[in-house]
Design a protein that fits this description.
Strand content: 35-45%
Helix content: 10-25%
CATH topology: Porin
Strand order of the largest sheet: 1-2-4-5-6-3-9-12-11-10-8-7
Organism: Nocardia aurea
CATH superfamily: Acyl-CoA thioesterase, double hotdog domain
Structural class: mainly beta
InterPro entries: ACOT8-like_C, Acyl-CoA_hotdog, HotDog_dom_sf, TesB_ACOT8-like_N
Pfam families: 4HBT_3 (PF13622), 4HBT_3C (PF20789)
Domain Acyl-CoA thioesterase-like N-terminal HotDog: 24-104
Radius of gyration: 18 Å
CATH class: Mainly Beta
Largest sheet: 12 strands, antiparallel
Distance between the termini: 29 Å
Domain Acyl-CoA thioesterase-like C-terminal: 125-255
CATH architecture: Beta Barrel
């Protein structure tokens, strides 16, 4: 598989300039998946110890990033022997539009202890296409528990009250000329957890305020899957969770907090990103 030479952003000194691919499904703003991607990209550059593992990344979508150049500033809050904590702020026109905090933990010996976990079976991962759909940076296949053996590419097939699943494969670099890292891939996919967990019989009515990714290991390969776990909502506020997978099995979870919002325009699985 060869990634497209074109990116969602083009680097320009310390800034990243969005291309048309950066637009999200809620309006003329940068999609939350790419906001999270740029924040995690900057965070990774602060860590040069390969034994430190990115265990948690929280993306706070406190503002809306315009389709204009953005910069990301990072701060190492703690650099200890077993833990490293890093903050990142996305700035546009002098104002912060998004924020992230990452916790890295040092890898060590695995305990042989047996622990219960909720059993979840993902639909089989897709064959990797050679190129994304026109006007998109990713390829997605969606599944519903109503018909788990039949994948689709149109989010409107999720209009039911059943459990949802998706496999997302990014085929375009986040920043032109740069290869996607496993962490950045996982963080970008996790933005769509809101769609997986909050899509219902009449569509998607919640937009991400923030989302948190927890990873016991980094994903292997280009495809990351999600299975809806929980959805709870009242008075226009939603909390939801999904399980994250790669082709080898589960890798972690994502939790989202959303607020009621209209205007989502489904354009197929490539529109699964749910933030601006």
């Amino acid at each position: 598989m060869n990634e497209s030479p074109h990116g969602v952003f083009v680097a320009d000194g310390e800034s990243c300039v969005p291309t048309p691919l950066a637009r999200g499904p809620w309006g003329d703003f940068v999609s939350g998946q790419y906001v999270g991607g740029l924040l995690s990209r900057a965070i990774e550059r602060c860590v040069n110890d390969t034994e430190l593992h990115p265990t948690r990344v929280t993306i706070d979508l406190s503002g809306r990033a315009l389709l204009a150049p953005v910069t990301v500033k990072t701060t190492v809050l703690r650099r200890g022997r077993r833990i490293c904590v890093i903050d990142a702020a996305m700035v546009q026109e002098g104002a912060e539009v998004a924020h992230a905090r990452a916790v890295y933990l040092r890898r060590g010996e695995q305990s042989p202890n047996q622990v219960w976990t909720s059993p979840i079976e993902m639909p089989p991962p897709p064959e990797i296409p050679t190129a994304p759909p026109a006007g998109s940076a990713s390829h997605g296949l969606i599944y519903s528990a109503d018909d788990p053996g039949v994948p689709g590419a149109d989010l409107r097939s999720w209009e039911s009250a059943s459990q949802k699943f998706i496999w997302l494969t990014y085929l375009t670099p986040l920043v032109s000329g740069e290869k996607l890292t496993p962490l950045t891939r996982a963080v970008m996919v996790a933005d769509s957890a809101s769609a997986v967990a909050n899509y219902g019989a009449s569509g998607l009515h919640f937009i991400n305020a923030d989302y948190t990714v927890t990873l016991s290991r980094l994903p292997e390969g280009p495809s990351v899957g999600m299975a809806g776990l929980t959805h709870n909502s009242e008075a226009g506020i939603a909390t939801a969770s999904v399980a994250l997978f790669d082709r080898r099995g589960p890798i972690g979870t994502a939790v989202t907090v959303g607020i009621a919002n209209g205007g989502f325009r489904p354009t197929g699985a490539r529109g699964a990103a749910t933030s601006t």
